[in-house]
Amino acid sequence: MKIRADFVTNSSSSSFVLARKGDLTEKQKEAIIAFVEDAMLGKRLLKAGASDTEIATDLKDEYLSEDVEERIRQALREGKDIYLGELSFDEAEYGYARLFENLWEELGEIDEGFEEIDTDLSY
């Protein structure tokens, strides 16, 4: 556990220390992109070309406005997939810290010169 010995303000920030050997490797860059896609860009809800039945079924429990539903349908017609995600503001601070921690864990598993030195964000 870290203890702050200096002047503490009302801030809710936390520091961390990482060690990295050289520039990011291609595997590390791929891991970052995969992590961001998975954790921050939502899960695919509908694929381009989805039928009206699939769209109605997949959107029925989403409580979207008519305008948003129409924009989804337009994006599908343009060949785009639809992704859905959420962010809980009740847990945003914890969730934000977990994003960092999960990313560092992913990069550490690659084992190409990436090391977590002091990454406790719990204070």
Describe it for me?
The structure is a single chain. The protein is an alpha+beta fold. The protein has helices at residues 26-40, 52-59, 66-77, 92-110; strands spanning 17-20, 43-46, 82-84, 114-118. The protein is elongated. The mean pLDDT is 83.
User: What proportion of the residues is helical, as a percent range?
Assistant: 40-55%
* Run of helices and strands: EHEHHEHE
- The number of distinct β-strands equals 4
Give the DSSP E fraction (strand runs of 2 or more residues): 5-15%
Helical run tally: 4
State the major sheet: 2 strands, antiparallel
- Estimate the global geometry from the Cα principal axes: elongated
- Kindly report the spatial arrangement of strands forming the biggest sheet: 1-4
Overall mean pLDDT stands at 83
Protein topology:
Layout: E1 17-20, H1 26-40, E2 43-46, H2 52-59, H3 66-77, E3 82-84, H4 92-110, E4 114-118
Antiparallel strand pairs: 1-4, 2-3
Helix pairs in contact: 1-4
